[in-house]
Every structure is written in C-alpha cells, then in structure tokens.
Automatic annotation (TrEMBL):
<keyword id="KW-0515">Mutator protein</keyword>
<dbReference type="InterPro" id="IPR047127">
    <property type="entry name" value="MutT-like"/>
</dbReference>
<keyword id="KW-0235">DNA replication</keyword>
<comment type="similarity">
    <text>Belongs to the Nudix hydrolase family.</text>
</comment>
<keyword id="KW-0460">Magnesium</keyword>
<dbReference type="Pfam" id="PF00293">
    <property type="entry name" value="NUDIX"/>
</dbReference>
<keyword id="KW-0227">DNA damage</keyword>
<keyword id="KW-0479">Metal-binding</keyword>
<dbReference type="InterPro" id="IPR020476">
    <property type="entry name" value="Nudix_hydrolase"/>
</dbReference>
<protein>
    <recommendedName>
        <fullName>8-oxo-dGTP diphosphatase</fullName>
        <ecNumber>3.6.1.55</ecNumber>
    </recommendedName>
</protein>
<keyword id="KW-0378">Hydrolase</keyword>
<dbReference type="InterPro" id="IPR015797">
    <property type="entry name" value="NUDIX_hydrolase-like_dom_sf"/>
</dbReference>
<dbReference type="InterPro" id="IPR000086">
    <property type="entry name" value="NUDIX_hydrolase_dom"/>
</dbReference>
<feature type="domain" description="Nudix hydrolase">
    <location>
        <begin position="3"/>
        <end position="127"/>
    </location>
</feature>
<keyword id="KW-0234">DNA repair</keyword>
Amino acid sequence: MKKEIQVVGAVIQSDNLIFCAQRGPGKSLAELWEFPGGKIEAGETDREALEREIKEELQCQIKVLDKITTNRYEYDFGFVNLTTFNCLLIDGQPKLTEHIDVKWLPINQLKTLNWAPADIPTIDILLNEN
Ligand SMILES: Nc1nc2c([nH]c(=O)n2[C@H]2C[C@H](O)[C@@H](COP(=O)(O)OP(=O)(O)OP(=O)(O)O)O2)c(=O)[nH]1
C-alpha cells in the first residue's frame, strides 16, 4: 500500500502577485514549482503546520486565511493530499533557503511554470476566480 502524505501549501498573495517556489535537486519532484509549505506533523493543525513551515523555509511570518482546496494526487512515492490556503505576509519578506528559485507572478502567468501536478487544481481555482 502506498503511504498517504498530508501536505499544506501557502498561496501568498501580495500586490496581486503570487509567490511561487522551485524545489531543489536531489529530492522528490526535483525542480518542479510549488507553493511553499510541507508535511503536517503529528499533533499539528493544518494551519499551524503551514505557519511553522513558512517560518522554517522562508524565514518570514504569514497569516493563514481561507482554505482554497484539497487535492489528492498519486505519485510513485505515495499519495499527496495537498491542502492550499490563501495567505498574507505579515512580517518580513520570504528568504530563499531551500528552494532554488522564486518568482512573484500574476495569476494569469502561473501556468508558464512547470508545477508539481498536485498543485494544478489550486491554480485552476485561482484562474477561475479572477
Ligand atoms: N510543500 C509543497 N509540497 C508539495 C506541493 N505539491 C506537491 O506535490 N508537494 C509534495 C512534495 C513532497 O513530496 C511533499 C511535501 O513534503 P515536503 O515539502 O516536506 O518535502 P521535502 O522535499 O522536504 O521531502 P521529500 O518529499 O523529499 O521527502 O508534497 C506544494 O505545493 N508544496
């Protein structure tokens, strides 16, 4: 049986631009673009996990707003259950620590990047809302 992996991702919007992050080499889904975030740990809510991951990865603080969607996607290494949230930056600017590149893009240009496939439904919702 493949494992179920619970993941949260932050859709950080500022001045009508969305923060996009490119995964590094040598890990799963290497070099694909994603919303920053990561795996939920035992005892955490999804929102707590997201705030923690953003502090760790981007060294800034976000406010987690409304949930966008949950999507389950089957990769070779397991099923990722990705839940995304609209978020606002409330302290600091995102710093690149483990990602290899970042971009701020308007919603209508998000599909110019090569996204992790679990992220596509979130992007489609953003496109349909705008
Ligand atoms: N953070 C994040 N992960 C995503 C997204 N879309 C997507 O399929 N994933 C996958 C990639 C990873 O397999 C998992 C998130 O775990 P993680 O961010 O802690 O991954 P990691 O690279 O530290 O660890 P690993 O998967 O290499 O073991 O979910 C996304 O938008 N954001």
